[in-house]
Design goal:
Strand content: under 5%
Largest sheet: none
Mean pLDDT: 86
Low-confidence stretches: none
Structural class: mainly alpha
CATH architecture: Orthogonal Bundle
Order of helices and strands: HHHHHH
Radius of gyration: 15 Å
Number of domains: 1
Number of strands: 0
Number of helices: 6
CATH topology: Arp2/3 complex 21 kDa subunit ARPC3
Distance between the termini: 22 Å
């Protein structure tokens, strides 16, 4: 039962991204809301949780999206979740805007990471001048959506201590 909530959230995010948001074109870019889940998991649960959630969410997207090799999004989202979790470990969570700034930077880094991974595996057209527009657009959209995603993440992936008690975040 503990995997039902995260699976449901990933299913909904992948479905929304590949159906509703696939037709939404902002400045020649597409939204990447699935990337929000590993960013939120990294913020709330640290680098290991961010990396694990990033891998599972990315692999789920890989299985649906055609035109990229399997593992492309899994690798990119794993790196993003890990890096965000690592950077967030030393930050005190006193202000509401810290996750917003983290999502802004993490999303831009994530899109850049996907472009670099794509370049290494031979995907054409990802690493070009348009990448700056993609990074900015996705970063701003994800920064606007991170606070609701943090609530979803706390519901789907509650932080549990070694003794089995919920840890307030």
């Amino acid at each position: 039962m503990k995997y039902a909530r995260p699976a449901f959230v990933i299913f909904v995010l992948v479905t929304v991204q590949t159906t509703l948001l696939a037709d939404l074109d902002l400045f020649g870019t597409k939204a990447d809301i699935v990337m929000l889940l590993p960013i939120a998991a990294g913020i709330s649960g640290g680098r290991e949780r961010g990396a694990i959630v990033g891998f599972i969410a990315g692999l789920s997207l890989d299985l649906v999206v055609h035109g990229t090799p399997t593992g492309f999004f899994a690798l990119g989202y794993t790196l993003v979740g890990y890096i965000v979790g690592m950077l967030q470990a030393g930050v005190l969570r006193a202000a509401w805007w810290i996750p917003v700034v983290t999502a802004l930077g993490g999303s831009a880094l994530g899109e850049f990471t996907l472009a670099v991974v794509g370049k290494f595996i031979g995907l054409e057209g990802l690493f070009n001048r348009h990448l700056v527009t993609v990074c900015i657009t996705v970063a701003v959209l994800n920064a606007l959506l991170i606070l609701p995603m943090m609530r979803v993440t706390k519901w789907a992936l509650p932080v549990v201590s070694r003794s089995g008690r919920l840890v307030p975040t």
